[in-house]
Specification:
43% strand, 2 helices, alpha+beta, seven-stranded antiparallel beta sheet
């Protein structure tokens, strides 16, 4: 599990509590989360951004905890990130819903730096372990 390439986060050993994520994978900017895309479109420089998506997991159970949606403009070392998680609210609301936190603007020159910064912010506010 921990020898998987591209695993990032603060979890170092099996059984340790915390959050980890897989290396962000390149995706077309146009398929980023709609809230993130709207934030980019308001700036009129969408073409300068590259899109990325990373799976997020909570340890020690290796339970999936959503995705980091990341847009990076490497030319000016600026990024925006968003964390999404899908869940079912209970018997009364049995449909799967998606919760999103962000977009959050970040000083980051690449997708890995952006994911680490996004994680740090979400950890500080108690959203991730």
């Amino acid at each position: 599990m921990f020898s998987e390439s591209g695993v990032q986060g603060e979890v170092e050993a099996a059984g340790e509590l915390g959050t980890r994520w897989l290396e962000p994978q390149s995706i077309a900017v146009e398929i980023l989360h709609p809230s993130l895309l709207t934030a980019l479109e308001q700036r009129n420089d969408v073409a300068d951004f590259q899109g990325f998506l990373a799976r997020v997991y909570e340890m020690p159970g290796d339970t999936q905890n959503g995705f980091f949606h990341i847009a990076v403009n490497p030319t000016i070392s600026e990024a925006a990130g968003l964390h999404t998680v899908s869940l079912i609210m209970g018997e009364r609301y049995a449909e799967d819903i998606e919760l999103a936190i962000g977009p959050i603007w970040l000083d980051a020159g690449d997708e890995n730096e952006a994911a680490a910064e996004l994680y740090a912010i979400l950890k500080d506010v108690g959203r991730l372990a």
